[in-house]
């Protein structure tokens, strides 16, 4: 049996304002496009075997000593793209966050308290990721970390702004 909250969210999504629907569609398509291009750019890692020791942290969690290009995980390809080809991963991050915010807005738009909680939790996660996630200090990772950190701060401050919105 489906929970009534899920049914209400589905009704909201189906009968949303067409302007928000277009934004959701465009942001999702842009998210998928930038993800595809990021993974394509990151696939250069498959040819850069000396870099495997430094960039394939997630692959090393699965395989003790990866020896074939097929062993490399997609997350490692994405991180390689962040490190050396950062434009599309940054666009992917921004479009993904925008898509997420639109979904949160639709899902709980009548309850600003819940939206504040979701934004605060998301902001905290983004700040923690920006501080702990990347050990490399290339230009791409520095810019990506700064964007994660600033976005996390914005998400943390926005609940206070929502509180005063009447």
UniProtKB/TrEMBL annotation:
Transmembrane feature ranges: 20-39, 84-105, 117-136, 142-162
InterPro entries cross-referenced by the UniProt entry: DUF4306
Keywords from the UniProt entry: Membrane, Transmembrane, Transmembrane helix
Transmembrane as UniProt keyword: yes
Protein name: DUF4306 domain-containing protein
Lineage: Bacteria, Bacillati, Bacillota, Bacilli, Bacillales
